[in-house]
Amino acid sequence: IPLIKGEIIKEKIKNIELDRSEIDNVKSSFISRYKIGTNEEYNKFLQKKGISEIEFLNSLSEPILINKYCIDKFGHTVERRYLERKSDLDLVSYSLIRVEDKYMANELYQRIIEKEAEFGEVAAKFSLGPEKKTQGIVGPVGLTKSHPILSKVLKSCKEGEVSRPFHVNNNWLIIRLESFQASKLDSAMEMRMAQELFNESLEEEIKHVFDILTKEESNISKE
């Protein structure tokens, strides 16, 4: 499958070109990263690898060529993809206390809102989940990564607000929204969405080619 993937990618980017400045940037980045001080050192490196400069720079440029292909091919659908995924891309940080007993949850809630105890101290002492080790802090995480009930409560909270205890599965939860980081469709997000679409398309093509090869191999073995 890696071989199939490599060949499909090569076919897709074969007509994508970099301009002179992009190629120079690729070379400069490599020289800087590996602390190559002179052209003589650079040429010795190429000789040792047994590769021409054009071949070498082409191999280094592949990730950039793929990114350009992603934008060229999927740029027009990036916004739709982003809107479909936005709730996954928005990030929240929150503090969490998780206990089994409803009455204990109510008591702890009262202690916190009446400032008899700090949220983090209560979480570290009483919470039952892994948040116990982080004084209740969870995140940043995607809003939809949490249980649907928890996500709904988070959406309704303001930053710094402590929720009343609510029931999820076998536990009673108290949360405090620490921060909400809304995603935005900037250039980095556009690239991320285009890459996602590219990878999904690539997986479909790999599966299609693999199925054809498997079928051909099966037919040959029957002859």
What are the salient characteristics of this protein?
alpha+beta, 61% helix, four-stranded antiparallel β-sheet, 9 helices, 223 residues
* Element-level helix/strand string: HHHHHEHHEHEEH
Number of helices: 9
Could you tell me the mean pLDDT? 91
Query: Could you give the distance between the termini?
Result: 25 Å
Roughly what fraction of the amino acids lie in strands? 5-15%
Radius of gyration: 27 Å
Structural class: alpha+beta
- Which stretches are low in confidence, meaning pLDDT under 50 for 5 or more residues running? none
Largest sheet: 4 strands, antiparallel
Shape: elongated
Number of strands: 4
Question: Considering DSSP H and I runs of 4 or more, what fraction of the residues is helical?
Answer: 55-70%
Describe it.
The chain is an alpha+beta fold and 223 residues long. The chain is 61% helix and 13% strand. It has helices at residues 2-13, 20-33, 39-49, 53-74, 78-89, 102-113, 119-126, 148-156, 187-222; strands spanning 91-99, 137-142, 166-168, 171-181. A four-stranded antiparallel beta sheet has the order 2-1-4-3, sandwiched between helices. Helix 1 (2-13) crosses helix 9 (187-222), helix 4 (53-74) crosses helix 9 and helix 5 crosses helix 9. It is elongated, with a radius of gyration of 27 Å. The model has no long low-confidence stretch (mean pLDDT 91).
